[in-house]
């Protein structure tokens, strides 16, 4: 089976909230550069529009990349070591068994024809360069587009400097409509119309607008900020204020680049237009990574000089001035700043001498959120907490980084990292969780209970990736530390990962003994996450030993525990375990009900490993019921999930898998099994649960289409011909030369025995009409 495609969905692509103005020449240049180079870097000063250009270009050329266009946003990332994890997360890969390095990322990308967009690389430049270099070396079909103030500096990189927008010279004599041919003027007029609906470029306003664009050197961010100021100023007043600002600026740093001077001056001026409360809030809110909500803003930004009662007014004022951008996600309003605006706020905050206090409040807010999440995790609010932690993930990273960087703050970071153990597991971020644990264990070597708890969590995360060797050291230190500290509670807990290690080595009787000797203590401990983990290990181990009575005892206890507390995630594992046991007892109807219920719960989390186990179990059940075609499709889907998630824990049940798959293969025959298996494999991770639960069907290309003499590229060209595209349009869409596009069309005509493009289009339509579920 070929590797499944990695596609950035339209729903996940950043929406353009304002119109895209100009950049026709730059779009063409970047398109040509990408057709000739596998790495293109867009450089330029902050605010010049690198990100906007990259996003528009990537969206325009998306059809040229069958395996998707993927955006990796790095602005809020501080730990360079998490660049590979950020790439994997953006790609939508849910592998929980791999530690992410440039090399392991390259293994997963493989030979996919993919465009990877790395946005804002300058502050993590070294790791970005290493990651991209490895990917380009090992992934021959990959192309990379970066935005950065400094080029990566690696072999094969084509650097394109993004210029400012065009603006009219001072001696230009044109009618007002003629000035609209200059991009900066067109941008100003477009944004001004959003602020003052009846704004128009006429004989009265044209001169001032042109002067504004010249004084701002055509920098898009500066032009937009100036246009938004028309709420309170006329164009003539704006020109005068800019003149005053620059006459003052010229006395200062003459060594700075003019565009740096201009942008800084423009933001200075926007800052001065704000009230004192708005300026204070702007600076303090800049510690948030990417975005924040009102509750977080009140906890982090409020102090003696900024009362809670004025925070809402300050936010409203900054939204009106376009300093803050309002977003609404799942009924909850959040706010964000453009990165250049945020960096300006950080500079102001550092200059105020209050940065440490604000960052401590930021850290405390997220530590409190994480600790409350852990307290509530085994309960009815679990899915809500999971969703919130996903939204706040970048801010949690920022808080953890502060704890590592700031002397004396490591202990708080240790508490945060330990409390995130289950979140990392459920969200598919085990590799990232292990990295944070390792970094804090290296930086906080004192003998303390908090270190002991983190050692236990670190060993457990390593075991979840079947990394036995990495788990040995923290387990050994945890045993020694628990003895030294006389901590009976932690000594009890550490036997859970010890039992997991024994199970991974197929020492199931020993794993059962380890836990059964301590299960009463775990039951009384009150630590429900660890107790529930012990019940899962006991259930799995007893099941694999064929002990039906103890298997159902432990899984039913887990199920009852989850029902009492309203917990969902562990409940899904109890249902799955009971379903597998019912199947082994021959009750396939009840087994199906239990496993499907388990799968229904999984849709609320990112635990594709659990979903994969459910699909696998349903394939076994289908085999027992002689539903051979469905079994083959489910085996195909399970194989995709295993590949994407690194589902090592299914190794325990390889015997069940092998026997059931053998039976289905024998009944269907080689050809039919392969075709049905491929249908299931083509579903993909995101649609897996809906497909298995009967909410969607899968269309599969008929064999006669697959068997055509056309190559993959020629089929793509044929599809574009059917869409009515000319050879030039096909060349632009696929980023190939027009001559190459013409040659592809000629080859298609010859291979299919056709005389015209219309015959190609009719043939493609016919193939599509033959699609069958």
UniProtKB/TrEMBL annotation:
Pfam families for the chain: GerE, HTH_77, NB-ARC, TPR_12
Tagged with keyword Endoplasmic reticulum: no
BP-aspect Gene Ontology terms: regulation of DNA-templated transcription
PROSITE patterns according to UniProt: HTH_LUXR_2
Keywords on record: Kinase, Serine/threonine-protein kinase, Transferase
Domain HTH luxR-type: start-end pairs: 703-768
GO MF terms, alphabetically ordered: DNA binding; protein serine/threonine kinase activity
Listed InterPro entries: HTH_77, NB-ARC, P-loop_NTPase, Sig_transdc_resp-reg_C-effctor, TPR-like_helical_dom_sf, Tscrpt_reg_LuxR_C, WH-like_DNA-bd_sf
Entry protein name: Non-specific serine/threonine protein kinase
Organism this protein belongs to: Saccharopolyspora spinosa
């Amino acid at each position: 089976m070929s590797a499944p495609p990695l596609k950035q969905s339209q729903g996940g692509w950043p929406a353009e909230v304002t119109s895209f103005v100009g950049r026709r020449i730059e779009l063409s240049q970047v398109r040509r550069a990408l057709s000739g180079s596998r790495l293109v870097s867009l450089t330029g000063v902050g605010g010049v529009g690198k990100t906007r250009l990259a996003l528009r270009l990537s969206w325009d050329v998306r059809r040229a990349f069958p395996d998707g266009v993927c955006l990796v946003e790095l602005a809020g990332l501080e730990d360079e070591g998490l660049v590979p994890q950020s790439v994997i997360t953006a790609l939508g890969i849910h592998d929980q068994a791999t530690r992410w390095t440039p090399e392991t990322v390259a293994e997963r990308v493989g030979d996919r024809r993919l465009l990877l967009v790395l946005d804002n690389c300058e502050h993590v430049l070294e790791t970005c360069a290493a990651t991209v270099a490895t990917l380009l070396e090992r992934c021959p079909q990959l192309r990379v587009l970066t935005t950065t103030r400094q080029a990566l500096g690696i072999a094969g990189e084509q650097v394109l400097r993004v210029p400012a927008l065009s603006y009219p010279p001072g001696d230009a004599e044109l009618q007002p409509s003629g000035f609209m041919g200059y991009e900066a003027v067109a941008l100003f007029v477009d944004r001004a119309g959003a602020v003052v609906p009846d704004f128009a470029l006429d004989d009265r306003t044209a001169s001032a607008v042109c002067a504004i664009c010249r004084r701002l050197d055509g920098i898009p961010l500066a032009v937009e900020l100036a246009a938004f100021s028309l709420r309170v100023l006329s164009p003539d007043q704006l020109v005068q204020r800019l003149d005053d600002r620059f006459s003052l600026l010229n006395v200062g740093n003459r060594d700075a680049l003019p565009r740096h001077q201009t942008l800084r001056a423009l933001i200075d001026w926007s800052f001065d237009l704000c009230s004192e409360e708005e300026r204070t809030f702007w600076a303090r809110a800049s510690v948030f990574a990417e975005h924040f909500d009102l509750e977080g803003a009140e906890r982090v930004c409020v102090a003696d000089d900024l009362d809670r009662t004025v925070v809402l007014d300050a936010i409203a004022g900054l939204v009106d001035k376009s300093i803050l951008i309002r977003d609404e996600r799942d009924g909850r309003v959040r706010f964000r700043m453009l990165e250049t605006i945020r960096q300006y706020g950080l500079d102001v905050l550092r200059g105020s001498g209050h940065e440490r206090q604000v960052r401590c409040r930021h850290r405390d807010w997220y530590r409190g959120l994480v600790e409350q999440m852990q307290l509530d995790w085994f309960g009815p609010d679990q899915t809500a907490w999971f969703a919130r932690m996903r939204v706040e993930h970048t801010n949690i990273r920022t808080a953890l980084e502060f704890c590592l960087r700031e002397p004396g703050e490591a202990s708080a970071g240790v508490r945060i990292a330990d409390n995130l153990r289950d979140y990392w597991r459920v969200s598919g971020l085990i590799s990232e969780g292990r990295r944070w644990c390792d970094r804090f264990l290296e930086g906080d070597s004192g003998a303390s209970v908090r270190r002991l708890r983190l050692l236990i969590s670190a060993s457990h995360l390593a075991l979840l990736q079947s990394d036995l060797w990495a788990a040995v050291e923290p387990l050994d230190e945890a045993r020694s530390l628990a003895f030294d500290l006389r901590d009976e509670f932690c000594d009890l807990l550490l036997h859970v990962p010890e039992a997991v290690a024994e199970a991974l080595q197929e020492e199931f009787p020993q794993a059962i003994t380890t836990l059964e000797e301590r299960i009463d203590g775990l039951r009384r401990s009150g630590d429900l996450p660890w107790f529930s983990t012990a019940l899962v290990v006991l259930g799995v181990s007893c099941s694999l030993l064929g002990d039906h009575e103890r298997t159902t005892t432990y899984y039913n206890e887990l199920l009852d525990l989850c029902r009492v507390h309203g917990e969902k995630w562990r409940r899904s594992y109890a249902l799955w375990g009971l379903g597998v046991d019912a199947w082994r007892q021959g009750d396939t109807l009840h087994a199906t009900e239990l496993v499907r219920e388990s799968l229904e719960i999984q849709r609320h989390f990112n635990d594709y490993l659990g979903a994969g186990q459910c699909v696998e179990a349903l394939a076994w059940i289908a085999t027992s019921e002689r539903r051979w075609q469905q079994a083959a499709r489910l085996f195909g889907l399970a194989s995709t999930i295993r590949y994407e998630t690194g589902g090592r824990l299914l190794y325990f049940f390889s015997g069940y898998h092998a026997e059931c798959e053998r039976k289905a293969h024998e009944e269907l025959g080689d050809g039919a099994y392969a075709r049905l298996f491929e249908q299931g494999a083509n579903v993909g991770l995101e649609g897996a649960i809906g497909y298995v639960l009967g909410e969607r069907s899968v269309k599969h290309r008929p064999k006669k289409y697959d068997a055509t003499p056309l190559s993959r590229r020629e089929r793509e060209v044929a599809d574009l011909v059917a869409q009515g595209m000319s050879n030039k349009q096909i060349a632009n869409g696929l980023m190939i030369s027009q001559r190459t596009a013409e040659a592809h069309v000629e080859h298609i005509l010859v291979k299919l025995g056709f005389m015209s493009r219309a015959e190609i289009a009719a043939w493609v339509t016919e193939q599509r009409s033959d699609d069958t579920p």
